[in-house]
Design a protein that fits this description.
Layout: E1 8-10, H1 26-46, E2 58-63, E3 69-74, H2 77-82, E4 86-95, H3 102-112, E5 121-130, E6 133-140, H4 144-150, H5 153-166, E7 167-177, E8 188-196, E9 203-208
Parallel strand pairs: 1-9
Antiparallel strand pairs: 2-3, 3-5, 4-6, 4-7, 5-6, 7-8, 8-9
Length: about 210
């Protein structure tokens, strides 16, 4: 995400009255969406029919209640089955009312083509939650994968140019999945970054989360 060093550090229970999207109560709903995507991924990989060897990433489209969309892009499903602990990034954005998603979808399609260039990227799930808003879950085998993903030119362009035009605000979560995907353990959040694009330059903050 944006790299300016001028940010606010929030304690566990801090409230920012003029930025309600930062209320820590929102984490419960975000976490429910992210855990739901984890369960869908587990169910898929539990199925008796194996994931085809090609193509990579292997992309599936699921339909949720109300016709909402759910896309799963599997870069390395074999590692998802065996990795002892997964590193998690969860993206939760709230769009501008009149924002056009077409440019974001175009860049998203381009990013899919470079997934296999990122050695620790295992899967990328996108869930539509209504109102044109989405929740994204990215699983990595190692924390270094996050940095490798961030230096992608396409990803950096989307962060710099498209995110402020499409999103009013973003909650970006970091977390872990202890024991790996197939352990049955719950995803845990460790840090949340907040980005408010209603201000220019944008406002952002970091909150370290309690275990």
């Amino acid at each position: 995400m944006p790299t300016t060093t001028d940010y606010t550090r929030l304690d566990w229970s801090d409230l920012v009255p003029d930025r309600p999207f930062t209320n820590p109560d929102h984490n419960a709903e975000d976490l429910a969406h992210l855990r739901y995507m984890v369960e869908k991924l587990r169910h898929l990989l539990h199925q008796s029919s194996p994931i085809p060897v090609q193509p990579r990433p292997y992309v599936l489209y699921l339909e949720e209640a109300g016709g909402r969309r759910h896309r799963l892009a599997l870069a390395r499903p074999e590692e998802l089955l065996t990795c002892a602990e997964l590193v998690v990034v969860g993206f939760c954005g709230h769009k501008w009312p009149e924002a056009d998603r077409a440019p974001l979808d175009a860049v998203d399609a381009e990013l899919l083509t470079e997934f296999m260039q990122h050695p620790h990227l295992l899967s990328y799930s996108s869930l539509e939650v209504g109102g044109g808003n989405w929740r994204n879950l990215v699983l990595f085998s190692q924390a270094q994968g996050i940095g490798h993903w961030a230096i992608s030119a396409r990803h950096a362009d989307a962060v710099r140019d498209l995110a402020p035009r499409y999103y009013q605000n973003i909650r970006l979560h970091n977390g872990v999945l202890p024991g790996g995907l197939m352990s049955g353990q719950e995803l845990l959040l460790t840090r949340t970054k907040y980005f408010d694009y209603q201000d220019q330059p944008f406002w952002w903050a970091v909150r370290e989360l309690q275990a």
